[in-house]
Specification:
Elements lengths: L1 E2 L108 H8 L3 E5 L4 E8 L3 E4 L1 H4 L4 E5 L5 E10 L4 E5 L2 H4 L18 E6 L7 E15 L5 E8 L11 E3 L5 E9 L11 E5 H12 L7 E2 L2 E5 L5 E6 L4 H4 L7 E5 L2 E2 L3 H8 L7 E8 L2 E8 L1 E2 L6
Length: about 400
C-alpha cells in the first residue's frame, strides 16, 4: 500500500543530535564527471491505476502557471545553461537572485557529495507536538516548504538546521489537496538562510539522478541517492483526492523524510518527498517512493503565502479504463456536478471541453485547469450513442466522499 503519512513519531536520536560538521568537497581536487548522456523521452502515459478517483474526474492538484512567482530557478532542460544563472528566490513579484552556492557547478554535476554539500544548509528537520519530518528553504526571506501531513493541525513547528541551530517557524498555510505546507521563519532571529532552487519538474526524465536529503527515523541530514524511476504517477492526498504528475524514485526514503527535497544532478529541487509504497508487514523503504513535483510547489506556495484558500474544480465521478478508448464512469457522488448533469454509471466519457478522452488520466487533465463555477461540456457514449452533458463544476469538498 502507499503510506500517506511518511513521518516519524518520536526521535531515536534525541539527546545525541549534535554532529561534527562535514568538510565540503575540495573544488580544486574534484574530478570532472563523465559527459552526461541525453535523457530519453518520457514514456507514453498509460491508463490510471487509481482506485480512488472520486472528485474532479481525477482532478490534478498541479496547476502549473507560467507565472512562477520565482521560487528558485527554472530548469530549461539545457545542462550547460544551469550552472550559474541565479533565479528569483522570493514569493514577491519582483525577482531577487538566489545565493550563488544554491546550484552545483558544472564540474560537480552528478557528484552526490557535492550536491549534498550545496543543498544541506537549506534542509531542516521539523518537529511537531506529535511527530517529525523534514522541510527546506525556498527563499532567503524565511519561507520553508514541507508536507501538509507533517504539520497537521499545528500552528507552529520547531526546525533544526544542518549546523544544529534551532528556531520556531509559523505555519503560514496548508493545502491538503497537494500535501504541501508553507512555513515562515523570522530571519532576524535565524540570520541569512540558504535557499534551494526549484527545477522545472516537467523536464524530469526517467533514469536521471535523484538525491534525497531528510531525517529518516529521526536521523537528521541523511542523504540517499538513486534515480527517477517514473514520472506522471498518481498518489492520494491527505484529503482523499488525487495528486497528479508525481515523481517516482528508488532513492531510499523512509518515515521522517516527508517534506524533504528530492534533488537533480544540479542540486535543484525536483520534488517534495511525500509517500512510499510499503510491502509485507513493515513500513520501511522497498524502493518505491513518491515526490510531489516542484511545479506544484511553484504554484501552491505563493498562493498560501498570500493567505489564499485554494479551491479546485470538482466533477464528482470515479472512472476506470475500459476495453475501448474512453473513461468508464463508475460511482457518482450523490448530488455532485456529474450526477446533476445527468451522467450515469456505465457511461463512457470520450471528450471533456472538446478534448478527446482516451484514458481516465485525460479526464483529470481536462478538469485540472478549470475553476469551480465553470460549465464544461462532457461527451459520453451511452448505449452506442454520443450524448453531450453540460456539467457545472463545483468546488472540491474538504474530504473526498
Amino acid at each position: 500500500m502507499t503510506d500517506p503519512l511518511l513521518w516519524l513519531d518520536g526521535d531515536p536520536t534525541e539527546g545525541r543530535r549534535a554532529r561534527v560538521p562535514e568538510p565540503g568537497p575540495d573544488p580544486a581536487g574534484a574530478a570532472a564527471p563523465p559527459t552526461a548522456q541525453a535523457s530519453p523521452p518520457p514514456p507514453p502515459r498509460t491508463g490510471s491505476l487509481l482506485r480512488a478517483a472520486l472528485a474532479g474526474g481525477l482532478v490534478s492538484a498541479v496547476l502549473v502557471g507560467a507565472a512562477a512567482i520565482g521560487l528558485g530557478i527554472v530548469d530549461t532542460g539545457d545542462p550547460a545553461a544551469t550552472t550559474s544563472a541565479a533565479a528569483p528566490a522570493t514569493a514577491a513579484p519582483v525577482a531577487s537572485p538566489a545565493p550563488p552556492s544554491t546550484a552545483v557547478g558544472a564540474r560537480k554535476q552528478g557528484d552526490v557529495a557535492a550536491i549534498y554539500a550545496a543543498a544541506s544548509p537549506g534542509v531542516v528537520s521539523i518537529r511537531t507536538g506529535s511527530g517529525s519530518g523534514t522541510g527546506f528553504v525556498v527563499d532567503r526571506n524565511g519561507t520553508l516548504v514541507t508536507n501538509a501531513h507533517v504539520v497537521g493541525s499545528s500552528s507552529q513547528v520547531q526546525v533544526q538546521f544542518a549546523d544544529d541551530r534551532t528556531a520556531t517557524a509559523a505555519v503560514r498555510g496548508v493545502d491538503r489537496s497537494s500535501d504541501l505546507a508553507v512555513l515562515e521563519l523570522d530571519t532576524a532571529q535565524t540570520g541569512r538562510l540558504h535557499a534551494l532552487a526549484l527545477a522545472d519538474s516537467s523536464t524530469v526524465r526517467t533514469g536521471q539522478l535523484a538525491v534525497a536529503i531528510g531525517s529518516p527515523f529521526g536521523l537528521p541530514q541523511t542523504a540517499t541517492a538513486g534515480i527517477v524511476s517514473g514520472t506522471g504517477r498518481h498518489i492520494q492526498a491527505p484529503d482523499g483526492f488525487q495528486i497528479d504528475s508525481v515523481i517516482q524514485t528508488d532513492a531510499p526514503i523512509n518515515p521522517g523524510n516527508s517534506g524533504g527535497p528530492l534533488l537533480d544532478a544540479n542540486g535543484r529541487v525536483i520534488g517534495v518527498n511525500s509517500q512510499i509504497e510499503t510491502g509485507g508487514s513493515g513500513n520501511g523503504n522497498v524502493g518505491i517512493g513518491f515526490a510531489v513535483p516542484s511545479n506544484t510547489v511553484r504554484d501552491v506556495i505563493p498562493r498560501l503565502e498570500r493567505g489564499e484558500t485554494i479551491r479546485r474544480a470538482y466533477l464528482g465521478v470515479s472512472t476506470a479504463a475500459g476495453s475501448d478508448p474512453g473513461a468508464v464512469v463508475g460511482d457518482l457522488t450523490a448530488g455532485g456536478p456529474a450526477e446533476q448533469a445527468g451522467m450515469r454509471a456505465g457511461d463512457i466519457i470520450v471528450a471533456v471541453g472538446g478534448a478527446a478522452v482516451r484514458t481516465p488520466d485525460d479526464v483529470a487533465a481536462a478538469i485540472q485547469d478549470r475553476h469551480p463555477g465553470e460549465t464544461v461540456a462532457v461527451t459520453v457514449l451511452r448505449d452506442g450513442a454520443r450524448v453531450t452533458l453540460d456539467v457545472h463544476l463545483a468546488a472540491r469538498p474538504r474530504q473526498a466522499p
